[in-house]
Amino acid sequence: MNPREPASAWRARDLGTRTVRYDDRDAILYALAVGAAATDLDLVFEDRLRVLPTFALTRAQWAPEVLGDAGAFDVATAIHGAQRLRVRAPLPKEGELELTARVGEVWDKGSAAIFEVVVECAYFAATWWLFTPGRGGFGGERGPSAQRRPEGPPDLAFTVDTSPGQAALYRLLGDRHPLHIDPEAARTAGMPRPILHGLCTLATIALPLARRMGAHPAGLVALDGRFTAPVFPGDRLQVTGWQAGDEGDEGATVLFEAAVDGTTVVAGGRAQFRVTT
Q: What is the band of 244 on the pLDDT scale with cuts at 50, 70, 90?
């Protein structure tokens, strides 16, 4: 990291283009890693396969890593703060994606900066928000406020059990940060043990959320979530949701959050599904 270069200097920086390839085995492994059952044949059997839209995020993980490696921030202290996914078209069962990446906005939070990393292709657009301690204070805008929790009782509530081996499996999809597998690396980061990937947590919630909205998980149109506390493999997630109504051909929308033992771990969640597919 170059401490003499303000974080704002990275705004709109081109992070390059990459062509990534995958096959049906990758898509099936992903579905299993985020909670699909062996009986979900259209998620785990190649003859009927529909690729989960959130699988795309594993193919784009290189982009935030490129930004960190380029010296924009200290990769040892940066935190994945939030994620957005917008689906443009269903992913094929196998093939290649040409991805372009850039830095979007850089927000000034005082003691830290938030870098937006935007990745786009014909099938999706995704944004990572990276919270980077020590990079704020450059006089920039603070950025939009976090979405408030909906008022009133939730329209749906359910639990999702993560598995003890889930992080070990999910990391085979590309994010091999030692924080998710090595107890020593976790302790160095201030965690009592390895944590589950935020993107794995978000996708694990999206699967049962779709079904409770009368949709197929592959019918996901949009997904947002802010990571507010760590999730450990084996944790039970308590998910609550508020239906936000129909949006025409784009389907139904639900606002949601998730907690573990009363501590919110995902806030400001929003998912939209096509309910006719």
A: confident
